[in-house]
Amino acid sequence: MNPLAAILVRDMRLAVRVGGGALMGALFFLIVITMTPFAVGPDLALLARIGPAILWLGALLASLLALDRLFATDHDDGSLDLLMMSEVPLELTVAAKALAHWLTTGLPLVVIAPLLGLMLNVDMHALGWLTLTLAAGTPALTFTGLIGAALSVALRRGGLLLAVLVLPLTVPVLIFGVAAANAAIAGPTPFGPAFTILCALSLASLVLGPFAATAALRHGLE
Amino acid sequence: MELQAEGLTCNRGGREVFRNVSFKVPAGAALIVTGRNGAGKSSLLRMIGGLVRIAAGRLSLDGGKTDTPIAEQAHYLGHQDAMKTSLTVAENLQFWTRFLGSRGDFGPALELLDLAPLADLPAAYLSAGQRRRLSIARIVAVSRPLWLLDEPTSALDAPSQTRLSEIMRSHLAGGGLIVAAAHGAIGLDRARELKLGVA
Amino acid sequence: MAVIDFANPTRFLRIVDRLMPWLIAATVMLFAIGLYRAMNAPDDYQQGATVKIMFLHVPAAWLGMFGWALMSVAALGTLVWRHPLADVSGKAAAPIGAAFTFICLVTGSLWGRPTWGTYWVWDARLTSMLVLLLLYLGVLALYWTAEEPGRGARAAAILSLVGAVNLPIIKFSVDWWNTLHQPASVFRVGGSTIDPSLLTPLLIMALAFTLLFVTLHLAAMRNEILRRRVRNMRLMQAQEAHA
């Protein structure tokens, strides 16, 4: 079996077994959506209008909070040292871990998003498009968050530092994700351009994230 | 094959841990690194393994694969065991053999370390000594010429220490190299010694 | 005196000590000239005298961005060329750049109040500057939370480079977002039609601010070098006690 496939399988297995992976993120997402009406009131028209934004913010926060453990567990038990001593370039190993993370944390968010959208009275026929924007955008959140995860593990600091570092970098993804979602519902702008830029941001992060994270791990842990 | 070090200097956290360390380890030989705590034994091992930056000096593995970093031709057995507690013994070993590029199976390694009966047990249930043996099994299962062992006998009971000596001896007999950090004897006679921390 | 002389901290300190009085004098002089010209510049027909906040706001914005550019160059020096003073330079630049960005936000806010009635407006420039400030605070957080200065410096260097790559993207996104939600442009910072009578004082102020940045930066680098020496002496003291 390919070494990268081995990493992918192991990380996914761990995420499922250790618990708190897929389900915890989805649960957090649900809670954030539930809290929203308490904050803004149950006015359905208002909820429908801000629905896509709230869903995106919830997905963003849920993705970030779960990134905490991405490198920390491997660092704590000494696996990270060995991962760095393999023929497989660390960039690819890191990318494989990120992919496993997205599959076990990001993808569940995408899957329950339509249900949560219904709770926020988001226009039904637009739910599909909204989910599509999340599917295209959550990888960007994971792969950008990689950088913060690598920096904060090198400094042995946890989740809040990660969020502080990563959130400003995710501004473009948030802007275009919500814009695309809104465009599908009612917006003045068409769905296409915003969605394409969102995809471009995701693809760019697939490259930039692992490289920056690898540099952070190497320079930070030497 | 020979591991050569000349004038190695290590800086960690802004202070100099050791400077101007030189040694040679030919194939089939072992080097035991001794010194008090903080002298840099672990740092030296990690430096050879490419995990700590070389501040000054040269390090090379002559006769090994050229263009391949030493790290990829070495095993590192540190204080931690690099095993996931929620995976079984077999799953842990399976992952490492696959990831480190070995084609072989790890059954013989498990047998050698008396871990075969525990193969399907989650690693969380293992004692400290058993976990140490599992890490050693990883080194045995994947073939790499240079072994970097940081206090390999810690947590091992007497029979396991004997088993480890046998394993190390057969590695050396097959042309392998060992650099080990230890406070006392680790069951290898005729090993060279490098004392760190002597002014 | 070659650039390589700057690589030696002791020599660097000596050079800075010699330069400092001149830099301070030049900065003060330029500010005096600049402020005089600024005060005497004509009022804007729409905004009255408040347009003169521009003489603080615009240079502060430029220097906020300059600070990040300087940090990025220092980051390359730390990670790629391993220049000994590079991480000192980056660490010194970060708080100064953040301060200028903050000044830009505050002056922008004060400018907006009499003109638009609110203290904060989510227009493209102010919002981009706010995100830049957040990135600065992230880098500062890395310096603050690191136990070893070296590790914090390398982490900050990586974040500086990541930020440098992302900032154009963020700026583009924020501009795009702004046109989406606010079709009417809000701030006309003199735009492309700055009258020459306003341009000269602006450039003088910009130069004065830049000199201020350089002076503060060199002084901060000096402090950082001295701070590290103290730390090393303490470490050596602990090590000698150990032996």
Tell me what the structure shows:
The complex is a heterotrimer of chains A (222), B (199) and C (243). Chain A has helices at residues 3-18, 22-40, 44-67, 69-76, 79-83, 90-119, 124-154, 159-166, 171-185, 191-221. With 222 residues, chain A is mainly alpha-helical. In chain B, α2 packs parallel to α4 (128-141). Chain B starts with a strand and ends with a strand. In chain B, the strands form 2 sheets. A 5-stranded parallel beta sheet of chain B has the order 5-6-7-3-8, sandwiched between helices. Chain B has a 3-stranded antiparallel beta sheet with strand order 2-1-4, covered by helices on one side. The mean pLDDT of chain B is 88. With 199 residues, chain B is an alpha/beta fold. Chain B is globular, with a radius of gyration of 17 Å. Chain B contains 5 helices and 8 strands; from the N terminus they run βββαββαααβαββ. In chain B, a hairpin with a 2-residue loop joins β1 and β2. Chain C contains 6 helices and no strands. The A-C interface holds A 147, 151, 154-157, 161, 164-165, 167-169, 171-172, 175-176, 179, 188-189, 201, 208, 212, 215-216, 219-220 and C 79, 131, 134-135, 137-138, 141-142, 145-147, 151-152, 154-155, 157-159, 161-163, 165-166, 169-170, 172-174, 176-177, 180.
Summary, kept brief:
The complex is a heterotrimer of chains A (222), B (199) and C (243). Chain B has 199 residues and is an alpha/beta fold. Chain B has helices at residues 41-48, 89-99, 107-112, 128-141, 158-173, and strands spanning 2-12, 15-26, 30-34, 56-62, 74-77, 146-150, 177-181, 192-195.
Task: Give the helix/strand layout.
The complex is a heterotrimer of chains A (222), B (199) and C (243).
Chain A: H1 3-18, H2 22-40, H3 44-67, H4 69-76, H5 79-83, H6 90-119, H7 124-154, H8 159-166, H9 171-185, H10 191-221
Helix pairs in contact in A: 1-6, 2-3, 2-6, 3-6, 3-7, 3-8, 3-9, 4-7, 6-7, 6-10, 7-8, 7-9, 7-10, 9-10
Chain B: E1 2-12, E2 15-26, E3 30-34, H1 41-48, E4 56-62, E5 74-77, H2 89-99, H3 107-112, H4 128-141, E6 146-150, H5 158-173, E7 177-181, E8 192-195
Parallel strand pairs in B: 3-7, 3-8, 5-6, 6-7
Antiparallel strand pairs in B: 1-2, 1-4
Helix pairs in contact in B: 2-4
Chain C: H1 9-40, H2 54-81, H3 86-116, H4 124-145, H5 149-181, H6 196-242
Helix pairs in contact in C: 1-6, 2-3, 2-4, 2-5, 2-6, 3-4, 3-5, 3-6, 4-5
